[in-house]
Amino acid sequence: TQLLEQSPQFLSIQEGENLTVYCNSSSVFSSLQWYRQEPGEGPVLLVTVVTGGEVKKLKRLTFQFGDARKDSSLHITAAQPGDTGLYLCAGAGGGKLQFGAGTQVVVTP
Amino acid sequence: DTGVSQNPRHKITKRGQNVTFRCDPISEHNRLYWYRQTLGQGPEFLTYFQNEAQLEKSRLLSDRFSAERPKGSFSTLEIQRTEQGDSAMYLCASSLLPSGRAGTDTQYFGPGTRLTVL
Description:
The structure holds 2 protein chains of 2 kinds. By secondary structure, chain A is mainly β. Chain A contains no helices and 11 strands. Chain A has strands spanning 5-7, 10-14, 19-24, 31-37, 44-49, 55-58, 61-65, 71-76, 85-93, 96-99, 103-108. In chain A, the strands form 2 sheets. In chain A, strands 2, 4, 5, 9, 10 and 11 form a 6-stranded mixed sheet that branches. By secondary structure, chain B is mainly β. Helices cover 0% and strands 47% of the residues of chain B. Chain B contains no helices and 11 strands. Chain B has strands at residues 5-7, 10-13, 19-24, 31-37, 44-50, 53-57, 65-68, 75-79, 88-95, 108-109, 113-117. Chain A binds chain B through residues 2, 4, 30-31, 33, 35, 40-45, 48, 88, 90, 92-102, and chain B through 4, 6, 31, 33, 35, 40-45, 48, 55-56, 91, 93, 103-112, 114.
């Protein structure tokens, strides 16, 4: 059972379009981390957000942490085929990460 | 490359056999974590170490599973009498928590070991 709910589960878009994925929980986390994972590989860290209301930008990726530190979103502008992957959010608490099930993003040329 | 490394990358075994996986964390990282990931799910926490001390074990970690980090550097995860339900990707992660500071920290993952139990 995943305590973090991610939506949508699957997203297929054309190159150049924008997309947003969401991560929601009823729990408060001390920080939240976003990862991207490709088939057969481990998750690769994209960003860590710590402060409620925080917004971080990483090139075409924008991450937001909710004011109450229970939810987060990831927005990708002008998606590229290289953005294809499984996007995972993970809430930090008690020395371990609790992951959502992920959003599979497919960007077609 | 100074990232987290895991060996082997793939392991195929028959039901009932024992298997052991190794994880080498980023040097100087004092925390090391093991997770398990099945198809269509996010990683699930198994256990973690701070230096050589095992601080927490999940209920997912049955008595057939044992993890060690004897010198506070690399770690091994052993599964005894494997079952088909043990088939999964086993992920290791490491982090650096400065001494005297409680809480959580950013974790960096290895490429994983894919276990298939026939």
